[in-house]
Design brief:
Bound molecules: NADP nicotinamide-adenine-dinucleotide phosphate
Order of helices and strands: EHEHEHEHEHEHEHEHHHHHHHHH
Number of domains: 2
Oligomer: single chain
CATH superfamily of the largest domain: NAD(P)-binding Rossmann-like Domain
CATH class of the largest domain: Alpha Beta
Strand content: 5-15%
Number of strands: 8
CATH topology of the largest domain: Rossmann fold
Distance between the termini: 65 Å
Length: 316
């Protein structure tokens, strides 16, 4: 392992999903970590409780040779005018997602490297895997190589963080693939499909609790199989009836019209129109987003979940 990090203080700005895991894993790896959090927030209290020196964002940024920017992507441009002047001219920056490198115009320190180390897992999985002595895959990219050794910095950060194997990519590729994955499958596509399948059964008079158990609750078991064995391996573990339904009905659910929409989603990511739309919503205080999330949380499938998993009510 190279030792570009051993003698340097690392500031982790943001102590949420990724930040808390990065701070703990890097400290376990023997590095000196300070945390940046807003004063009086939940992150500040959690960070102090875990024993990290905790300062406000500019305070932590000014103390470090390497600064990991682990704030929400829509928040970073808002706090950057306070953080950027605090950075040393040679401070290196680590991003966990390329969003602001592609869609924002942040000014960076004159002489520092800017790299991307993106774990392909939520922070709590990154931390739990590390505690079990396991790693999660990740992406590495270099945005600015001022030192001539930015790839080494990214690789060492990833190694100490517990990311392996790592896939070397570009900032743009990581950004576009990540956004597409969450919109097409992991969040948008999946949540939309689960909700539509639940509603279809309930509309036809089936018990909401059973619709929930069948179409939503059981997903975890199939996802675990996919994770462990891949698509072909998972298909090898289902019944012949399920497999026949998969190959004959799956293409009707994901039809040519669906594929056209997938291509449209990707176009909107690549031409920046998704980012502009999101920036507009952020500019309006995320009012629509909050209202939409509240509406979704009140969907009857949540009550069906409670009844199916907690009440255990028997039908006559
Ligand atoms: N989530 C993932 O699984 C994942 C995976 C790979 C990469 N990433 C990337 O990792 C980065 C961090 O994402 P995340 O999901 O970890 O973020 P997150 O959990 O949403 O971050 C929350 C943190 O940001 C702080 N924060 C929020 N608003 C703030 C403000 N206005 N001023 C100061 N601090 C503020 C919170 O502090 P308080 O407690 O005080 O509110 C908390 O420490 C992003 O670039 C993201 O794309 C995320």
């Amino acid at each position: 392992m190279t030792t570009r990090l051993a003698e340097r203080t690392i500031a982790v700005l943001g102590f949420g999903n990724q930040g808390e895991a990065h701070a703990q894993n890097l400290r376990d790896a023997g590095l000196e970590v300070v945390v940046g959090a807003r004063v009086g927030g939940g992150a500040e209290a959690r960070s102090r409780a875990l024993g990290f020196p905790t300062l406000d964002l500019p305070g932590a940024a000014s103390r470090a040779a390497v600064v990991a920017l682990l704030l929400p992507d829509e928040v970073l441009p808002l706090v950057w005018p306070a953080v950027a002047p605090a950075l040393a001219p040679e401070a290196a920056l680590v991003f966990a997602h390329g969003y602001n490198l592609v869609y924002s115009t942040l000014g960076f320190p004159e002489r520092g490297d800017v790299v991307l180390v993106s774990p392909a897992a939520p922070g709590r999985v990154l931390r739990a895997s590390h505690e079990r002595g396991e790693t999660v895959p990740g992406y590495l990219a270099v945005h600015l190589d001022r030192s001539g050794a930015a790839w080494d910095l990214a690789a060492e950060y990833a190694e100490r963080l517990g990311c392996a194997p790592v896939w070397r990519t570009t900032v743009r590729e990581e950004t576009e693939v990540d956004l597409f994955g969450e919109q097409a499958v992991l969040c948008g596509g999946l949540n939309g499909l689960l909700t539509a399948a639940f509603e279809t059964l309930v509309e036809k008079g089936y018990a909401p609790e059973m619709a929930y158990l069948e179409c939503i609750h059981q997903l975890k078991y199939l996802a675990d199989l996919l994770h462990e064995r891949g698509l072909a391996g998972a298909r090898g573990s289902i019944s012949a009836t399920a497999l026949f339904g998969d190959f004959t009905r799956g293409p009707r659910v994901v039809s040519e019209a669906t594929r056209a929409e997938l291509r449209a989603l990707l176009d909107e990511i690549r031409d920046g129109s998704f980012a502009r739309e999101w920036a507009g919503e952020v500019g309006k205080g995320k009012v629509w987003l909050r209202a939409r999330a509240e509406q979704a949380a009140a969907h009857p499938l949540e009550e069906a979940r409670r009844r199916a998993l907690e009440a255990g009510e028997e039908r006559p």
